[in-house]
Amino acid sequence: MWAVALGVVASVTAACTSSSEPSAAPQTTVPETTAVPAITTPTTRPLSTSTTLRPTTTVSTLLQLGPGEASIGGTVLGPAGPVDGAVVRVERLVGKLIAPTDVTTTGGGSWQVPSILGGAYRVRAFRAPDLGTSPVESFFLGATERKTLDLRLPALGGERITAVVNPSPPRVGQPATVTVTVGIGRVDDQGRSQLTPRPNIVLTLTPGPGILLESAPQVLTDGNGAGTWAIRCAVEGASTSSLAVGTGVTQFTLPACGAAPAAAPPTTTPRR
């Protein structure tokens, strides 16, 4: 069995309570007014929304960033503009050795690492607990170069919803499952994305035309914040459904239902 993430188009019609920090205890009742955030589309599994670096280098106390005549600086930007209080991690690489330093953005999201040596560098930024890691910038810095580098951070904090269908795409006439996971997203002090599950949340799935629901429409999220439904495609190309989280409703799109598997050719018994 394998799962492929849904492609989702969300249209929020009501709002679901969100928080940048996980709650102290699981929510056991659905608030009267809830907020449904955009459903994310992980590429491999529901909780996969993070950027994880796996460097092949080793931190060294012998390798130095400077002093030198080069510099790197710029601005860190988030969805709402410049970001103050973000961490910019600058790493100088020589062979398998690494010399790192962290700087924090100040007014207007600006940052600067002056008086450093040239060479191979790797730079990324993040801000705990709400803004994830920027794309990693790798480059060669000249001995006297003044490099300007702007970094963009995605929003990862607050209420998060992810969904997968198995198999993907579903086939006409074949059983499939849809699993939705609800949680509170946050970023740790190393820029890694984490999700704190929200158990006991009422989820209601309403399939669109051409998709049959073969289990109860309403489920309660389990200890992993997940709810699962059994579905079956009745029409090739069908894809739309709606999901209610508490009183908030959002439309989303599954991978379009594929054609029914080809029938196996009849077997014949040779005559003796």
Features:
single chain; 272 residues; mainly beta; Immunoglobulin-like; 7-stranded mixed β-sheet; 5-stranded mixed β-sheet
Alpha carbon gap, first and last residue: 42 Å
Percent of residues in β-strands: 35-45%
Number of strands: 21
The biggest beta sheet reads: 7 strands, mixed
Structural class by SSE content: mainly beta
CATH topology descriptor of the largest domain = Immunoglobulin-like
Count of folded domains? 2
- What is the count of helical runs? 0
Structural summary, described in words:
- By secondary structure, the protein is mainly beta.
- The chain has two domains: 4-50 and 156-253, Immunoglobulins (Immunoglobulin-like, Sandwich), CATH 2.60.40.10; 58-152, Sandwich (Immunoglobulin-like), CATH 2.60.40.10.
- Helix content is 0%, strand content 43%.
- The protein contains no helices and 21 strands.
- Strands 1, 2, 13, 14, 15, 17 and 19 form a seven-stranded mixed β-sheet that branches.
- β13 (158-166) and β14 (175-187) form a beta hairpin.
- It is elongated and about 85 Å long.
- 32% of the residues are buried.
- The model is unreliable at 1-38 and 40-55 (pLDDT under 50).
